[in-house]
């Protein structure tokens, strides 16, 4: 076993324990960025001047009326920026734009003594606009050829030969919606300036180092004059990876210019209308199968809705392409990617970061093609799994080294859920109920862990031991409720060999650990855990030398366990506190800076080849649903999940992450329906679903009636911290099983062999129209159904989702 993976005697990792701030969360005493305003004197409040048009060039911006409003102190405009007027890393996001690019774009910011004064001041600012044509939907952009950023192409094998060898060829298209993060805490920042002009920013950010970088270039000062701290976030889900930077820069600029603290916080409507979302995608595809239903070739084009600027769209698209295979061996593939430029908010990172979009495409294809092939969807999926010992690689060339786990979790979930018996029960129920149908579907996942950009795969930590034996750890990861800090406390206590209560964790800040990567890509525990472990190992090595002298033994024979140092073969002991005190008096350094870099990664973005991921996380979910044939309403009766987290660092945290990720994924696929005004009227481009009253989020009523989550056992991951695997993002994709179960329940309303085109999100309305289409379908004797269109199924852009599927008759001659 590798040094990084090996666990010592009586480790603190692997012990189920609650979130380190759980008591603070449930009692309301946990502090978030905006709570700090109450502890800060003379704070000014920032409020945006939004332009409610989708696209236009600013011809006049008059701020004088705002300054006449009582309580308004200053109006920030582009003329006030001493450095670079840009809030992004691609330099395509002006902080103060002269061209409005989406409905609600902020063009100036008003600072007021109170939030109400700032709001009234913002309303008084006069903006004149030369309106320009706007592209709101993906279809608008595709028709206009409006694209930006890279257009990668991933090629593997001989696609043309693969289709020539296929007994069955199908083509189709599929469009699916994005998703709003809807974190509980909206974007917030609090900026202060000290007597030397140095800026200190409290920010709700997943990427403090990048927030620091953007603020420094907006202010035109070096990074060492800007410190960013993230106490904790009330949720992030990727929405606070890139987008907090500009908001923090507004607060910092205001503080720099006025000398007073500036508070920034978006209200819910502003957050929904000004910040980016998960990328919606459009896919066109062609797939070939052999006579046994094994994939021979795939040719697809994925188009992501990037919004008005690039943000993180390029890496999101890259990860989508890298995950279109999911758990399936595709010997010949050609997949192209594009990013549409639309006049909507700039779409950004969201849990899974393109992976869910790519995986959804192949799962949709298999769900639609299974009836046309005369195969049970479960059987079709299983036939196409990566197989161990076959030397199979992904379409981008990375070997699939744990293919056996794909089948292991699949078989275990079948056994745990009693699939065979329940399928018979469901068949009997459906035969007896013409207006209510049930279905049971299983889907699996293979999700790559690491940042696609190799340089981001590094982490840092600073660990301090005080004379009394207490330990303080700092690391570069941020806490957004996911339990990263809890795991880091457990890693530190395990490595040092001390009880958990001896360790405390400090808030994440850039003057303690520099140049950190975002807490994203599910890599927080891997990178920061490796760094914390490295720092603690340095300290333990020094302390073992001290203990060896005191115990009269060799350092290699000394073990520190549960806060006591002992030498092998001896009864002598030395308590941790005494050991630390002794080390101090011997002038042994009791602080250490730790570092970790993920080894074995390489990626060529131009050729789209390499091994960008350290390992793959696996899982399988079985979901049973019941659909009402009169309304399309449905309920999730039962969910069984087996998920691979390696050797869990913190099982209670991990099970919570699996449950939460699954529910969030189910929300994206079945409930959360983003809609924009696509009319040519005065509100064109306006987000229509800009509140919880119009944007349906999963709630208790959508939770499965029975929800069973099991972590895969005996699953040590070599080369990862204490044998663990990432858990943040992969479980979200387990929710594909909900959508596929709905598809199968809808098909049960029609004749045998019907192929169901299902919109995404599969809202009750979309389900109703799909089952109406299934009822109208007729099936040919060879089991191939007439392909239909899910009439009435719509995406948030007002365009039909799903798409036509066509059987290529010329390829069926061997069928």
Describe the structure.
This protein is of the alpha+beta class and 815 residues long. Helix content is 28%, strand content 23%. The protein contains 19 helices and 30 strands. The strands form seven sheets. It has an eight-stranded mixed sheet with strand order 3-5-1-12-9-10-11-20, with helices on both faces. A six-stranded mixed sheet has the order 7-15-14-13-8-30. A four-stranded mixed sheet has the order 16-27-28-29, sandwiched between helices. α15 crosses α16. The radius of gyration is 28 Å and the shape is globular. It starts with 21 loop residues before the first helix and ends in an 8-residue tail after the last strand.
Descriptors for this entry?
28% helix, Xanthine dehydrogenase, alpha+beta, Xanthine_DH_Mopterin-bd_su, 6-stranded mixed β-sheet, 815 residues, 30 strands, single chain
Q: Helix share of residues?
A: 25-40%
- The value of Rg in angstroms is 28 Å
Largest sheet: 8 strands, mixed
Treating each run of at least 4 consecutive H or I residues as one helix, how many helices? 19
Mean pLDDT: 95
Q: Which term fits the overall shape?
A: globular
The rounded distance between the terminal residues' Cα atoms is: 49 Å
Q: Per DSSP, what share of the residues sits in E-state strands of 2 or more residues? A: 15-25%
Number of strands: 30
Biggest β-sheet: strands ordered side by side in the sheet: 3-5-1-12-9-10-11-20
Detail the poorly predicted runs: 779-803, 808-815
Q: Structural class given helices, strands, pairing?
A: alpha+beta
């Amino acid at each position: 076993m590798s040094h990084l993976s090996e666990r010592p005697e009586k480790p603190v990792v692997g012990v189920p324990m609650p979130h380190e701030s759980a008591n603070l969360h449930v009692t309301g005493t946990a502090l978030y960025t905006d709570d700090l305003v109450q502890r800060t004197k003379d704070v000014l409040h920032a409020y945006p001047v939004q332009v409610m048009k989708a696209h236009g060039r600013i011809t006049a911006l008059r701020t004088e009326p705002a300054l006449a409003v009582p309580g308004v102190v200053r109006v920030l405009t582009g003329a006030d920026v001493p450095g670079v007027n840009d809030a992004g890393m691609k330099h395509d996001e002006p902080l103060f734009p002269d061209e409005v690019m989406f409905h609600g774009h902020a063009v100036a910011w008003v600072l007021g003594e109170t939030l109400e004064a700032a709001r009234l001041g913002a309303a008084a600012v006069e903006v004149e606009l030369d309106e320009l044509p706007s592209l709101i939907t993906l279809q608008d952009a595709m028709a206009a050829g409006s694209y930006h950023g890279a257009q990668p192409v991933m090629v593997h094998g001989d696609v043309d030969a693969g289709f020539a060898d296929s007994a069955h060829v199908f083509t189709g298209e599929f469009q699916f919606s994005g998703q709003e993060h809807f974190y509980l805490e909206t974007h917030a920042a609090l900026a202060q300036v000290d007597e030397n002009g140095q800026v200190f920013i409290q920010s709700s950010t997943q990427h403090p180092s990048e927030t620091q970088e953007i603020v420094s270039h907006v202010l035109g000062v070096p990074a060492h004059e800007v410190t960013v701290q993230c106490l904790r976030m009330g949720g992030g889900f990727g929405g606070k990876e890139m987008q907090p930077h500009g908001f923090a820069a507004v607060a910092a600029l205001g503080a720099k210019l006025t000398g007073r603290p500036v508070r920034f916080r978006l209200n819910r409507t502003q957050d929904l209308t000004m910040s980016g979302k998960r990328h919606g995608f459009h896919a066109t595809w062609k797939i070939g199968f052999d006579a046994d239903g094994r994939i021979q070739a795939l040719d697809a084009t994925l188009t992501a809705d990037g919004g008005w600027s690039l943000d993180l769209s390029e890496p999101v698209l890259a990860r989508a392409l890298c995950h279109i295979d999911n758990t399936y061996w595709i010997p010949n593939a050609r997949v192209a990617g594009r990013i549409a430029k639309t006049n909507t908010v700039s779409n950004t990172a969201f849990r899974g970061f393109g992976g869910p979009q790519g995986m959804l495409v192949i799962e949709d294809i298999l769900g639609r093609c299974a009836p046309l092939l005369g195969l049970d969807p479960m059987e079709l999926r299983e036939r196409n799994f990566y197989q161990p010992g076959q030397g199979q690689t992904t379409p981008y060339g990375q070997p699939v080294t744990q293919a056996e786990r794909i089948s292991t979790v699949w078989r275990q979930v079948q056994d745990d859920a009693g699939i065979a018996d329940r399928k018979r029960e469901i068949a009997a129920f459906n035969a007896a109920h013409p207006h209510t149908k049930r279905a049971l579907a299983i889907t699996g996942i293979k999700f790559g862990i690491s940042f696609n950009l190799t340089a981001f795969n590094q982490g840092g930590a600073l660990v301090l031991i005080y004379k009394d034996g207490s330990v303080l750890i700092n690391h570069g990861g941020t806490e957004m409720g996911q339990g990263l800090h809890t795991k880091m406390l457990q890693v530190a206590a395990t490595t040092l060999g001390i009880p958990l209560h001896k360790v405390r964790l400090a808030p994440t800040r850039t003057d303690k650990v520099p140049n950190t990567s975002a807490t994203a890509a599910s890599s927080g525990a891997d990178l920061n855990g490796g760094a914390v472990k490295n720092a603690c190992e340095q300290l333990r090595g020094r302390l073992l030398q001290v203990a060896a002298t005191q115990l009269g033994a060799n350092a290699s024979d000394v073990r520190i366990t549960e806060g006591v140092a002992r030498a092998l073969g001896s009864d002598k002991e030395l308590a941790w506190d005494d050991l630390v005190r002794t080390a101090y008096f011997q002038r042994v350094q009791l602080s250490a800076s730790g570092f970790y870099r993920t080894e074995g990664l390489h990626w060529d973005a131009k050729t789209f080849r390499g091994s960008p991921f350290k390992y793959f996380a696996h899982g399988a979910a079985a979901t049973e649903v019941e659909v009402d044939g009169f309304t399309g309403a449905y309920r999730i009766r039962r969910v069984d999940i087996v998920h691979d987290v390696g050797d869990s660092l913190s099982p209670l945290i991990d099970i919570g992450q699996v449950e939460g990720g699954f529910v969030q994924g189910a929300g994206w696929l079945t409930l959360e329906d983003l809609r924009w005004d696509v009319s040519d009227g005065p509100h064109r481009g306006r987000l229509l679903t800009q509140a919880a009253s119009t944007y349906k989020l999963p709630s208790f009523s959508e939770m499965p009636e029975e929800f069973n989550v099991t972590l895969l056992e005996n699953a040590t991951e070599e080369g990862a911290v204490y044998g663990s695997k990432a858990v943040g993002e992969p479980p979200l994709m387990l929710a594909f099983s909900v959508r596929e179960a709905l598809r199968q329940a809808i098909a049960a309303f029609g004749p045998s062999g019907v192929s169901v085109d299902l919109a995404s999100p599969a809202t009750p309305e979309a389900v109703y129209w799909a089952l109406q289409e299934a009822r109208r379908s007729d099936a040919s004797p060879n089991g191939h159904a007439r392909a239909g269109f899910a009439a009435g199924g719509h995406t948030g852009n007002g365009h039909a989702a799903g798409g036509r599927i066509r059987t290529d008759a010329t390829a069926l001659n061997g069928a």
